[in-house]
Model the fold of this input.
Amino acid sequence: MDYLPPGRVVRVCDPRWSRWVIRDGLGKYWTGDRWSNRSGEALLFCRETDAIEARNRHCLGGDTADTFTATVVVTVHANCWSAEELATHLKRHRKFCAGGPPGKGGLLLELLPGTLRRTEP
Done:
């Protein structure tokens, strides 16, 4: 198969003890070195950020990737957004893909709503 559906991070288990797995567009689970149809073989992650990093590194259709961390400042109009509303919005619209210059691969910028904190001026 020339095209592998991209992996996505999915929350599993009871919400009190959230765990994360990586699934592809065909419903298969990432085991850490291959895709499997069996959910019991899925690699479990305790933190969503760890699952996202693993997905970005290993689930790009066979290509490997480097992951960098950056601080992003989100500024909104005063009293228009609660932290919960903003986190929900960012979770829904958290991926930004951009093509690189000629000879370079694409760039995926992903916002992690769980890291959202209000700063004081």
